[in-house]
Amino acid sequence: MVLSCPILLSCLGAALAQTPSPAAEPLHVRYETYAAGIHVADVESGFSFGPRTYRMNLDYRTTGMIGYFVHGHQFDVVDGAWHGMQAEPSRFIGQGTWRGIDRLTAIDYHDGSPVVRQLVPPNTTDLEPVPDAMRANAIDSLSGLAQLIRVVGATGRCETAVRTYDGRRIVAIEAHTVGEERLEPTDRSSFAGKALRCDFSGRLVAGFRLDGDRARQSKPMQGTAWLAPVTDGAPPLPVRITFQTRWFGDATMYLMGIAPGFDRTVDRGN
Q1: How far is CA 179 from its chain centroid?
Q2: Fewest CB atoms less than 10 Å from the CB: which of 68, 116, 152, 176?
């Protein structure tokens, strides 16, 4: 998904960047993802943004017929701090199961550089190694999304450019502001109304498969996110996201519900 996508920015200015905002109440949101009219995945996420620190998680699992053919479940969580308007992760953990293979990634961050503590399964000779210089200042995709949310809330715009690193690959992500649009009511979403549209793209720049078509692997994947405040005092959150996938073509993720609290409510099993 491009959510690992997803997940980035420029600063507003020194005065605003150094003015802490009041802590927002933790929120837990739930999404459903559709492709070709079929419900293909469920997503839940927790947001806890304070004036100095942030925490975010994302739970993603395939469902229905897609889940039968491409069974997968992933749970990621990150803790970090704000440096002005920029997200600086301290620790990222991702764990899940895809096509029957257990996966685990644990990354610490020191002086802006990611340090991989655990990687299951380990990198093999199937992927090109990522140079140390390219890993410097790369962040995880959740921190990228947290940074976008913070900037949109402070500036009303979403111009961003970051590199994300998942322990195996580096993806360059760019986003730009399109403007305010009205999302019409649909039975697939709990949200309708005005939202800020942000178009984005993600492009693989390191960690290519050695036996793959490099041009195809580096082709940018496009998407659009609409962000809007969903409760009083909350930052603008993604209420709808459309994105390209390599598995089932174009997909759309719809906000289905929101509740107070950070922890997820889905079953913790795989």
Answers
A1: 21
A2: 68
Instruction: List, for residues 89-136, the tens digit of each pLDDT value.
Output: 999 999 999 878 899 999 999 988 999 999 999 987 789 999 989 999
Instruction: Name the β-bridge partners of 86.
Output: 83
**pLDDT tens-digit series, residues 77-94:** 999 999 988 899 999 999
By DSSP bridging, strand 160-165 and strand 170-183 are: antiparallel
Hunting for tokens 């419900």 — which residue is that?
39
- How many CA atoms are closer than 13 Å to the CA of 36, on its beta-carbon side? 7
Q: How far apart (Å, rounded) are the C-alpha atoms in residues 201 and 163?
A: 12
Locate tokens 């659009």: which residue?
A: 224
Question: What are the residues whose beta carbons fall under 8 Å from the beta carbon of 197, sequence distance 6 or more?
Answer: 177, 178, 179, 180, 181, 224, 225, 226
Nearest alpha-carbon partner for 175 in 263, 241, 99: 241
What are 249's two structure tokens?
Answer: 């073509």
pTM score > 0.85 for this model?
no
